[in-house]
Amino acid sequence: MLPHNKKLLIYIAVLFIFLYSVIVVSFYYILNDIAINQNKQKLHNILLYEQAQKNYVDKYQKKFIYSLQHQNILSKEFFSPVLMSATFITRHTLEEYNKLRKKEHLPEIKYKIASDNPRNPVNKANKKELKLLEKFNNKKIDIYSKKIKINGKDYIYYAIPVVPNNKSCMKCHSNPNLAPEDLIKMYGDKAGFHEKIGHIRALLSLTLPLEEEYTFIKKISFIFNLILLGLFIFTYIIIYFIIKKLDKKDRQIIESSYTDELTQIFNRKKFNTDIKKNMKNFNKLSPYLMLIDIDHFKKINDTYGHPVGDYVLEELTKLISENIRSNDKFYRIGGEEFAIISTQKNNENERIFAEKIKNLIEKHSFDKVGNITISIGFTKYQPEESYHNWYKRADEALYEAKKTRNTIIEK
């Protein structure tokens, strides 16, 4: 394949690798964001449900119990967290929910109610949670979520505020003297009191590992990457064959531009290109340059006409081509002038070859013309010399050979 086409294929391969990498990385981050958002939505829905459960306790369950107390069916001092504490109910509901998740082999959800004034020490807010409660009360944020690491694994921490205190909350959270005796007996009269209506006293938080979502995005990423890789490979193969086909045409064009139209051997353009292009190699190989000229060729054209002259050129080219060596390159560089660039190691071999070519042509009978002769001049490349000097020396050797005709001169 031609060098410029090879480079083009390399550039396309590098471009495809770059595009593939960018798309794969971008797709991964998109899926990662989707996984985090799905996890957040899942936690948000759970917290909304827990919030709804608290609302139910405040609006219906407590109201019903207060009605029973008002009717003296229940003692006015009655208090049971199982029925009247939304915090207690929520915590134990989540415990049961985690048990069900465990049966389904799902990761545990870590749940916490964090309060700035809890009755149960379990619900005491830490410094970070107190800051969040302050932001919730100041209406700076409505929801808080953050990606965290626990034991090297990714989790989403998600928190929302509980419903602000209302009138029904004040019976148990305002003055200890108004609270049921059963509540005082259970929790004492210090914690959980002296609160105001509208104050957000707690937040609900859930912490859930991203393991489930990550497993899903890994599967999706693998399938997507595989399809994308296959698409790029398929596209590259198509491009490869297109370039290969174009390369063949390019070669044909180049070969035609480097081929002598009459004799079908290399022309002067190819000769000049090879000499200039291979100068560095010539320093290592020390090749020979042989120039060949047909003696009295003008006379052949004048006597027999140009068609016969063309035939002589073709026939001579065929004879030399059939006897040329594997490390020789054969060119037609002028009307009746030819050149051979040879990488022979010594002038003795080159002399023998020149004699062989001269004798071969001399003994061959050309149709209508009969026998003809050639003159040969050759010279060895001198390290570091310019191709102009090398060619000039060979041309001088040929010039001397043409003085006597049918002669070989070495310079």
Your description of this structure?
There is one protein chain. The chain is α+β, with helices and mostly antiparallel strands and 411 residues long. The chain folds into two domains: 3-220, no CATH class; 268-410, Alpha-Beta Plaits (2-Layer Sandwich), CATH 3.30.70.270. It has helices spanning 3-70, 81-84, 86-103, 127-137, 167-173, 181-187, 211-257, 268-277, 279-285, 297-304, 306-323, 347-363, 387-404; strands at residues 110-115, 144-150, 153-161, 202-209, 288-294, 328-332, 337-342, 374-380, 408-410. The strands form two sheets. It has a five-stranded mixed sheet with strand order 6-7-5-8-9, with helices on both faces. A four-stranded antiparallel sheet has the order 1-4-3-2, sandwiched between helices. A hairpin with a 2-residue loop joins strand 2 (144-150) and strand 3 (153-161). Helix 1 (3-70) packs antiparallel against helix 7 (211-257). The longest helix is centred in the N-terminal third of the chain and has 68 residues, at 3-70. The radius of gyration is 49 Å and the shape is rod-shaped. The model has no long low-confidence stretch (mean pLDDT 89).
Write the layout of secondary structure elements.
Blueprint: H1 3-70, H2 81-84, H3 86-103, E1 110-115, H4 127-137, E2 144-150, E3 153-161, H5 167-173, H6 181-187, E4 202-209, H7 211-257, H8 268-277, H9 279-285, E5 288-294, H10 297-304, H11 306-323, E6 328-332, E7 337-342, H12 347-363, E8 374-380, H13 387-404, E9 408-410
